[in-house]
Design a protein that fits this description.
- The protein is an alpha+beta fold.
- Helix content is 43%, strand content 17%.
- Strands 3-2-1-4-5-9-8-7-6 form a nine-stranded mixed sheet.
Length: 380
């Protein structure tokens, strides 16, 4: 979406407002999220949204956005005044992005090739501000491979770890994620709301109890179950690493799907272990080294409908969200965050997401408006 185009932000702005729910809905969100606690130069949420979209898609220049505002909106800002206003707009822009995601989901046609529970591929992507003191932010997201679209977004400080709680998983959904997300408290929550998961497990990061003897599962137990076969599974119970004093929780019941990986994967894992050794001075355990050629996936999907091979195929869908992140960052020039201030950087990222979603909605509307071409009969 060319944000420097006058028809997109000025002459056609009322039509853009409708996509966000209308002028009043935008203004209500600005008030509710604290983005407009004071109405001085910026009169309403709609005006604030236009400023944020221009800042995001005009190269992240406060000076350029201030000049655009004076010329197009008749509102003169200093760079500092604009910075202060935009850095308070993160929650406002996150709410507006959610509105657009809901509109896209309503209009998107699900793939006829998939009729099962909704699949949500979950991952995060790192954004780093300029210079040595640039802020480090993480975009948390989930992606629907059947409809080829993101379904949830959030942007937080890097200190907020990757978690399934930020992925918008609903009852009946299947969350698919790598081992950074294999945290028992989050998997317990999914089980409680009757959602499903298929997450890669690490022998150290996830505390698994072998259901046969109640003992903690180690590499020896995993390899014994696999034997000489290429695949196997175990029934396990998952327990939290730390619990509040006096509390007691029953283990989360799950299946541990064990797959023998190929030589290329084993080489990749060994290289990762070596990088960790060099960079973080981390000494790998014997269990970690023994399982370098094994993939473990935890799931609570029923075995009759989801045998081992189907679980493996489900987990392989994860590459799609990684590709979606790369496409998003490349198409909307989001790789280089222009702001050092973490809160301003968050607003820049979220405003770019809103612009990307707007472009997707407008593109889909154009496609629906153009009738399919018909082959004309050849002249006699």
């Amino acid at each position: 979406m060319g944000i420097d185009s006058e028809p997109s932000l000025v002459r056609n702005w009322p039509e853009i407002e409708v996509l966000f729910g209308g002028f009043e809905a935008i203004d209500d969100l600005a008030r509710a999220t604290g983005a407009l606690s004071r109405r001085r130069l910026v009169r309403d949420g709609s005006q604030l949204l236009r400023l944020a979209l221009n800042y995001a898609t005009a190269g992240g220049s406060l000076r350029t956005t201030a000049g655009w505002s004076e010329f197009s909106l008749g509102v003169a800002f200093s760079d500092v005044a604009l910075l202060r206003r935009l850095r308070e707009s993160g929650d406002f822009l996150a709410s507006l992005a959610t509105v657009l995601l809901a509109r896209l989901a309503r209009d998107a046609a699900p793939s006829g090739a998939w009729s099962g529970p909704p699949i949500r591929l979950v991952d995060g992507s790192l954004f780093i501000g300029p210079g040595r003191k640039g802020g480090r932010l993480r975009m948390h997201a989930s992606y629907d491979p059947a409809r080829q679209m993101f379904t949830a977004f959030d942007v937080t400080d890097i200190k907020r770890g990757e978690s399934l709680s930020l992925a918008g998983i609903e009852p009946g959904d299947i969350a698919v994620a790598d081992r950074n997300y294999a945290k028992t408290h989050a998997l317990r929550r999914l089980s409680e709301i009757e959602a499903f998961f298929a997450v890669r497990a690490g022998i150290r990061s996830t505390r698994m109890l072998d259901s046969r003897d109640g003992e903690r599962l180690g590499a020896a137990g995993v390899l014994a179950a696999l034997g000489e076969a290429g695949e196997a599974e175990l029934e396990v119970g998952l327990i939290e690493a730390k619990l509040k004093k006096g509390s007691h929780l029953e283990p989360v019941q799950a299946r541990l799907v064990i797959l023998r990986a190929g030589d290329a994967f084993a080489a990749h894992e060994n290289a990762r272990i070596e990088r960790s050794r060099r960079t973080h001075k981390a000494t790998p355990t014997e269990d970690t080294l023994a399982l370098a050629g094994v993939v473990m996936i935890l799931t609570n999907l029923p075995a009759d409908a989801w045998p081992i091979r189907r679980i493996a195929d489900l987990y392989r869908l994860r590459w799609q969200i990684e590709l979606a992140f790369k496409t998003l960052k490349s198409t909307f020039v989001m790789r280089d965050v222009p702001a050092k201030d973490p809160r301003l950087a968050r607003s820049w990222i979220l405003a770019n997401l809103a612009a990307a979603l707007l472009a997707e909605i407008l593109s889909s509307a154009i496609e629906r408006a153009i009738p399919p071409s018909e082959d004309k009969p050849a002249a006699a």
